[in-house]
Amino acid sequence: MPKRIPVVEKILSANDRIAQENRARLDEAGVFSINLMASPGAGKTSLIEHTVQRLARQFRLAAIDGDIATSIDADRAAAAGATAIQINTGGQCHLDAVMLRDALKQLDLIEFDLLLVENVGNLVCPADFELGTHKNVLIASIPEGDDKPYKYPGMYKDVDALIVNKIDLLPYIAFDMDYFRRGVELLNPGLVTFPISCRTTEGLDEWLDWIKTNARP
Ligand code: MG
Ligand code: ZN
């Protein structure tokens, strides 16, 4: 079994090298980029729609959507006003740096200020594959339950910001926010957190301000 470890390290370091190249291309073109990760149904596409609609006047926006089989999410990002590129992963359950590199080739990067990458809905392996984006953001949601930081620590421990979506459902679901936050704090102390509802738009302004502070068009 120990023989397998070097192979995994080799694959990951190859990914990291390409991620660094992606970052360099984005920096060169002046594109601020965010990798959005979450379980299926947490609200990645909804958040992209709101973000695109609200920032379209200030930023030239592109969205890259990773999906196992369909273009539903990329179509929604495009309808909201972004230039959208679809990556069909062909069954693979996460994006990697090679996939992002190939998608970036389809964009004239100099034409954009902000890139939103929607990773494949999955709370496990997307955390292991750096894409080269400037920020990694995790979207949790109330219906998933308050125990997810404890069950998926790898996902929570290295992200740069956390969105907690669907807070409008808090009155209807047994979700102990203190227990959830304690779990997050153990893994990622002081993590910037945005409780939001894509349905009511509560909390979206704080999220949009965070993007504006980090990205300078
Ligand atoms: Mg989606
Ligand atoms: Zn995977």
Q: Which spans have pLDDT < 50 for at least 5 consecutive residues? A: none
Percentage of residues assigned to helices: 25-40%
Mean pLDDT: 94
**CATH topology, anyone?**
Rossmann fold
Helix tally equals 8
Tell me about this structure:
40% of the residues lie in helices and 19% in strands. It is α/β, with parallel strands linked by helices and 217 residues long. It has one domain: 3-Layer(aba) Sandwich (Rossmann fold). Strands 3-2-4-1-5-6-7 form a 7-stranded parallel beta sheet, with helices on both faces. α1 (4-29) runs parallel beside α4. The protein starts with a helix and ends with a helix. Magnesium ion binds at residues 44-45, 73, 118. The site of magnesium ion (MG) has 4 residues, from α2.
Secondary structure elements and pairings:
Blueprint: H1 4-29, E1 32-38, H2 44-55, E2 61-67, H3 72-80, E3 83-88, H4 97-104, E4 114-118, E5 135-141, H5 148-151, H6 153-157, E6 161-165, H7 177-187, E7 192-195, H8 204-214
Parallel strand pairs: 1-4, 1-5, 2-3, 2-4, 5-6, 6-7
Helix pairs in contact: 1-4, 2-3
The chain binds magnesium ion (MG) and zinc ion (ZN).
The site of zinc ion (ZN) has 4 residues, from loops.
